[in-house]
Design brief:
By secondary structure, this protein is an alpha+beta fold. The chain has one helix at 49-62; strands at residues 2-6, 9-13, 20-23, 27-31, 38-42, 64-65.
């Protein structure tokens, strides 16, 4: 799954829940339909192009690609 950590705590999102993602030119948007859970992963936050590709592969293996919006 995915873990989000901040100063306020952390949240774990499981791959067992249906997971959907959309890749845009600038980011990955990940959400869990039927919940209020979603995450925006800006590509500028990744240390390299290889890291972006690895994220793309992980999402492709565990989530359904969305076709909504450009």
């Amino acid at each position: 799954g995915m873990t989000v950590t901040s100063a306020d705590g952390h949240t774990v999102f499981s791959w067992q829940q249906p997971t959907t993602f959309k890749e845009t030119r600038w980011s990955f948007i990940v959400w869990w339909p039927g919940t209020q859970g979603w995450m925006l992963l800006p590509k500028r936050a990744f240390p390299s192009a290889d890291a972006i590709e690895r994220c793309r592969q992980i999402l492709a293996n565990h989530a359904k690609r969305s076709t909504w919006f450009f």
